[in-house]
Amino acid sequence: LAEDPPAQREAERRHTAAYADLIKRCIDVQAGSSTPEAWAALGRNSDNLHVAWARAVSTVDEAALPTLVRGISILYGNRGWHREGAALFARAAQALQQAGASDRVRGLVLGYQVYFLLWSGRATEGAAVLAQSVALLEASEQTDWYAYIRSHFGTVALSVGRIAEAQEHYATAARLTAGSDPYAHQWAAFSEGIVALCSGDLDTAAR
Question: What is the pLDDT of residues 135-150, one digit of tens each?
Fold first, then answer.
């Protein structure tokens, strides 16, 4: 293949697409859940997944990147690799900016960088990156991905007792997905109820 660059590029593209498809089959990209067998399959293929991720970033493969972003974030999050995840997404965000990637993909990658920064206890740094992510995703009008990220931020905020901040994130996610994504909307609304329960607002929680 090295002597046939077009054939090599096509083989690499198919490899990246194949592992993006593996993530789709192994992980519920909405709920972030998977079976033990699926997790085992991902574990066995972790090296190839990282190769596919690196190639998708370097070639700005916007067809594969959204799925790979979600899958890689779940893998790192479930393994507790928060600092590593923040560094991985920071490198990707810088590379994609230099390559002229779309607002949608750049905003998505920055959003997951924020997610891992927050879990790493780097809230101040995360707030600065969050502003960039929000601006890019709002400019791209990609509300569904933006909503998922805001839900994740709400979960992080709630876990450390930042109730008002969590409420804002979940309310934004619910508003963005109303009428477009029933699963994400219901999850955000349910999470709003959890926040209300934590703050003692039993009437809102009951609704």
Answer: 888 787 666 677 777 7
